[in-house]
Write a structure and sequence with these properties.
160 residues; alpha/beta; two-stranded antiparallel sheet; Rossmann fold; globular; single chain
Length: 160
Amino acid sequence: MNTKFKILCLHGYRQNAVKFKSQTGALRKNLRHEAEFFFLSAPHRIPGFESGGEGDDYDQRAWWFTKENSFSSRDVTDLDKGLEESLDLVKKYFDENGPFDALLGFSQGFKSRCTLHSHYYDEKIHINSLHVIGETDEIISNDMSYDLANVDIMWQGKVI
């Protein structure tokens, strides 16, 4: 019987499952006896990166776009082009591979819980969460991360 926690991992903008998996190597190594990680690529390729090379840098993905075919967390918009397809993909993946004990979302993979998508969160659940907020994230600002983290924030080893 598998007693490991199952964690679904959602990458950030301009990344994919393979790249995010490589970026989480130290975390996966430290939790190898406690957790099993599952990585899913967003369904939308970023225009201009569909072809012309090999490797992870040429398979850049997005969960949704705030403009016709681009994304910026700084855009003031009600456009979330592609979000429904992404939610359908995550649901299908969850149905086929779940249930999962945790979700690890990075940058845009986490940002989907923003105000624009709040209608998906009418029913509130109480769950433990860990928010790691990077000072150098250029996609999701610290203020946006704090707004989404309705928990105590740990800053440099101290809960504030």
